[in-house]
Amino acid sequence: MAANRSSAAADRRTRIEEMRRAEQARERRNRVITITLSTVVVAGLVGFGGYLLKQENDKQERAEAAAKAPIEDEKSWDAKKLGRNHVTKQVSYPMKPPVGGDHHQAWLNCDRNVYKEPVPEMHAVHSLEHGAVWITYSGKAAAGDVKKLEEKVGKTSYSFISPVEDQTGTIMLSAWGKQVTVDGADDPRIDAFLGKYVQGPQTPEPGAACTGGVDAKGVPGAAGGMQ
Q: Which of 92, 109, 175, 199 qualifies as a cystine partner to 131, CB 3.0-4.6 A?
């Protein structure tokens, strides 16, 4: 009887030990699985983060390359030879539209401003000094192109648009010391010019305001929008 009890106890101990070993084996497997999954997840996150970083670096490099790339048929003037004095007497500029020179002390509002009428050149030149790009068009420009350009200006800070009937080109873009002529609103040089010269390296006074100036009639205090 005692022997039977002893044998039963030994069997229970054996089963308990087997169960303990099985539980320990499961715990080890679970730890291995957890560590493996964590490693895979971390590696994936690191890889994805590296991919995003590379994409951002590539984008920045492309933008920098585009900013340095010459724009076809762009005209340039020596910025150092363009006057920057504030004057009240009318200035006769050697180019149309002007790309720099002496100008009025008040700048034209140039933060996404769409002007339906001609604007005073002396105020507009001051806006170019602040890093704005001035888009102008003659009567030869198609109405659809003008609408597209007005919409583009409406989304682009430090830009403004107005008609200039006696300019030589259909559509012209001017920055301080820079100018390019295009025939239509879909010309890729428009975006290239804006990307390169809105507050670009040619700007004599980077960061200067493009709001709080005057409107097309030279009246101070007018804000943005169509005028």
A: 199
Per the rule left: phi > 0, alpha: psi between -120 and 50, beta: everything else, 73 is left
174 contact partners, CB below 8 Å, separation of at least 6: 97, 98, 99, 128, 133, 134, 135, 136
In total, how many domains does the chain have?
Answer: 2
At 16-68, the pLDDT tens digits run: 676 777 677 777 777 877 887 777 777 777 776 665 565 555 445 544 555 56
What is this structure's pTM?
0.71
Shared domain check, 117 and 18? no
Q: What is the pLDDT of residues 212-225, one digit of tens each?
A: 999 998 888 655 44
